[in-house]
Amino acid sequence: MDVIIVCHVEFDENKSRERFTRDINTILKIANRYHVKLTFAIMPEVAKYFPKDVKHEIGLHIHPDDEIIKAHCNLSRDSDALWDYPYKEQLEMIKFGKDYLEDVLGIEPKVFVAGKWSVNNDTIKALIKTNFTHDCSASQRKKFSYCDWSKLPRMCPPYKPSKDDYQKRGNLPLLIIPVSQMWRGGEASPENVPLVGIKWLKACFLEHLKGMPIFHMYLHSTSIKDLRIALAMDEILNFISKFDVNFKFASEIEEYSNVKPRDSKFIYIFRGINKTLMTEGILTLLKEWRRMLCL
């Protein structure tokens, strides 16, 4: 099985350059310990502070409220969701971001990640226009005011989208690589371990190992300052590295043929009852009983 780790590279809320450098170095230290390939999807505003000698893949990450984007692109509105902008403005942001990373880091990015998973048909059109080959913005079953991936099943292999609907399989020259999803636990990310436990994330990997050709895990660079998440990333990479897998850059992934995804919910149970989810479920049930008694 192929394994990709995509890091969404951003400033924290304080936009601290020192904190940013420390976070990137922590991620690199953990990944290099297990000989893992990382794809860093970088926001333009942090590009100048990203290490120049990193031997990992560089991709583009766009949030429309990126300070460099706002200063150089003519935007008609003030939204942090990419899909709120018309095609021409999305194209301008993506083209500028790509050119900017190439100027600063000397590498032409081929992998794209939209902030807040915010993609629509115009985004796909703009990515193809600017010669991106891979998109890692899909988070299955999500549907909010800023994104919609509700048509994708939980176990969804990479696919080329349709011209008329980015959530349907087609033949456009762009490969969408959805994030792997846990059963009742959200996305495969060390960031979710404090919520659902490390056993649930390990079970997600084992489920994909059994029924999928790829495991796509992600994290934000800002999250690694939380010791729980740093330890979770170290533990899950140590766990995965013991199996016969191929760590790859996102741009190395190709469309798989004859994939028939199989979900295996029993794997989660066999890995151990998730105490965190059980506790949350019991608390929710008690609150509902209390509400009913008060009626």
Task: Give a structural overview.
The chain is of the alpha/beta class and 295 residues long. The chain has a single domain (2-270), classed as TIM Barrel (Alpha-Beta Barrel). It is 37% helix and 15% strand. It contains nine helices and twelve strands. The strands form three sheets. Strands 1, 2, 3, 4, 5, 8, 11 and 12 form an eight-stranded parallel sheet that branches. A two-stranded antiparallel ribbon has the order 6-7. Strands 9-10 form a two-stranded antiparallel ribbon. The longest helix has 20 residues, at 275-294. The protein is globular. The termini are far apart. The mean pLDDT is 92.
Instruction: Report the count of strand segments.
Output: 12
CATH topology: TIM Barrel
Text of the CATH class:
Alpha Beta
CATH superfamily: Glycoside hydrolase/deacetylase
CATH architecture: Alpha-Beta Barrel
User: Uncertain runs with pLDDT below 50, 5 residues or more?
Assistant: none
Number of helices, counting only DSSP H or I runs of 4 residues or more:
9
Write the element-wise H/E pattern from the N-terminal end onward. Answer: EHEEHHEHEEEEEEHHEHEHH
Provide the domain count.
Answer: 1
The average pLDDT value, as a whole number, equals 92
Query: Outline, from the CA principal axes?
Result: globular
